[in-house]
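Below is a filled-in request sheet from our internal design queue. Each sheet records the structural input a requester submitted and the sequence that came back. We keep these sheets so that new team members can see what a complete request looks like end to end.

REQUESTER: design group, bay 2
PRIORITY: normal
MODE: inverse folding
CHAIN LENGTH: 483
BACKBONE (tokenized):
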């Protein structure tokens, strides 16, 4: 390890003498370097953890020491017999008040000897840490050859850096942690919550989180758009060598997770084949294919959900790990057979939109698929998964609330709006009253003969006779789409 003030003072050949109480500062803190300067304010050229060596007494010892202490200087050494004999009492008092260790360097001891001792220890520590990093990386690489490569790598990493390590899966839950028991339930929840936005982003990213088990550094695993999880490593006190080892493990863990993609892709293709067999009515064939690998087919009644969006792949990964419902990729869409709770969860978690059919059985899949597609057209940002039950309950005319229907209706009714913008509303009231002039006239507050005249005007403008049911129904549909 690097030199400490205790070790420095213990070197008899240097003859250093501590002038402040032993309680001042931390005598066992590692020293980053030793530097000499007689500038009035050398702090811009120093880093925390360094030892400063001076021969010139500062004019204002109190302000000078305050600056050094605030900057994080580890200790101050004063060389005697160069400018003056002995160390100024004002400097000793200021260092004592600010808790900055002060030692006296005798004239016979050159500053370079102090610098060399610290530098040699820093170099030796760097060499030792680099050697450790190589050994640790070799041990982790060998662990990757074991049957459970991912678990072995993470376990070895935890052992080498002596910190807890956890893996948050693509589903957002902590899948593994090492050593056993190091990450309790509260820490697992904290890690899962911190990993969630990283996984949702779909991009390679890093972060940090504090837990009951200490601070953790987070790093996503996998390629952008197909993240495989998040590696969480206890980060308290990790030096550059340990961080280098962790960086190597991120690559190894990502590789181990990617190795499972071929098996995942095969299962995905199998699911798609089973789904298409079911839609084609080959239930026996679908069951025989699914049973050995995917398990039994769902029991009716169930709902069919069709979902789409950029997070379909991540949603399929989550379903694979967290549910036993049947699902499959169908082109760019995700099809789920079950109740309506899973689609709602997927929509919220992976920003998907879609529709859910009415309850169905295996024999009614084609019809249920059409229902789900129809409901999907009604999905909105506020209601990302529309239900066909709601669409059916709203009636046929509710289906006219589409951009295409509004465009056709606006064209058909344009002569009415151009002649009198109030005329479409009058016709809507008349048709809502089943074409009964007396009832509609009372609702409009006009005479029935006036209403008859307005209806006749509408017939002239539209070029159609509104006495037939078909003509009235067509006009009513257009009015429902626009008014």
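RETURNED SEQUENCE:
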């Amino acid at each position: 390890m690097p030199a400490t003030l205790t070790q420095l003072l213990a070197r008899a050949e240097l003859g250093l003498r501590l002038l402040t109480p032993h309680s001042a500062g931390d005598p066992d803190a590692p020293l980053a370097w030793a530097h000499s300067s007689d500038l009035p304010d050398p702090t811009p050229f120093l880093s925390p953890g360094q030892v400063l060596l001076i021969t010139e007494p500062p004019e204002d010892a109190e302000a000078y020491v305050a600056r050094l202490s605030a900057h994080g200087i580890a200790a101050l050494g004063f060389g005697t017999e160069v400018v003056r004999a002995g160390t100024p009492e004002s400097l000793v008092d200021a260092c004592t008040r600010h808790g900055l260790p002060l030692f006296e360097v005798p004239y016979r001891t050159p500053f370079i000897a102090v610098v060399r001792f610290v530098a040699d220890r820093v170099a030796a520590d760097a060499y030792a840490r680099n050697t450790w990093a190589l050994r640790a990386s070799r041990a982790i690489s060998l662990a990757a050859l074991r049957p459970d490569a991912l678990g072995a790598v993470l376990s070895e990493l935890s052992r080498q850096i002596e910190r807890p390590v956890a893996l948050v899966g693509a589903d957002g839950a902590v899948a593994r942690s090492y050593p056993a028991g190091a990450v309790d339930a509260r820490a697992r929840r904290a890690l899962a919550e911190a990993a969630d936005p990283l996984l949702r982003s779909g991009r390679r990213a890093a972060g940090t989180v504090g837990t009951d088990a200490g601070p953790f550094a987070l790093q996503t695993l996998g390629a952008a758009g197909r993240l495989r999880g998040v590696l969480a490593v206890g980060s308290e006190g990790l030096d550059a060598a340990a961080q280098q080892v962790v960086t190597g493990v991120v690559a190894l863990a990502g590789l181990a997770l990617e190795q499972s993609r071929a098996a995942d892709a095969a299962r995905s293709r199998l699911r798609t084949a089973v789904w298409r067999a079911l839609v084609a009515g080959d239930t026996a064939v679908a069951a025989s294919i699914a049973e050995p690998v995917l398990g039994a087919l769902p029991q009716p009644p169930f709902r069919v959900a069709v979902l789409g969006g950029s997070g379909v792949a991540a949603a399929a990964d989550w379903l694979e790990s967290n549910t036993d419902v049947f699902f499959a990729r169908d082109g760019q869409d995700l099809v789920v057979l079950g109740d309506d709770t899973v689609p709602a969860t997927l929509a919220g978690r992976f920003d998907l939109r879609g529709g859910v059919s009415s309850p169905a059985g295996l024999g009614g899949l084609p019809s249920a698929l059409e229902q789900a597609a129809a409901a999907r057209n009604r999905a909105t940002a506020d209601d990302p998964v529309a239900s066909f039950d709601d669409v059916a309950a709203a009636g046929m005319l509710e289906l006219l609330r589409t951009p295409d229907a509004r465009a056709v209706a606006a064209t058909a009714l344009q002569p009415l709006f151009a002649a009198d913008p109030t005329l479409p509303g009058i016709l809507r009231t008349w048709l809502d009253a089943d074409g009964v002039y007396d009832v509609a006239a009372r609702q409009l507050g006009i005479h029935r003969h006036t209403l008859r005249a307005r209806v006749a005007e509408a017939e002239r403008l539209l070029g159609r006779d509104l006495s037939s049911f078909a003509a009235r129904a067509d006009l009513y549909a257009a009015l429902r789409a626009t008014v």
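SHEET NOTES:
- The radius of gyration is 39 Å.
- The longest strand covers residues 214-223.
FILED BY: M.R.
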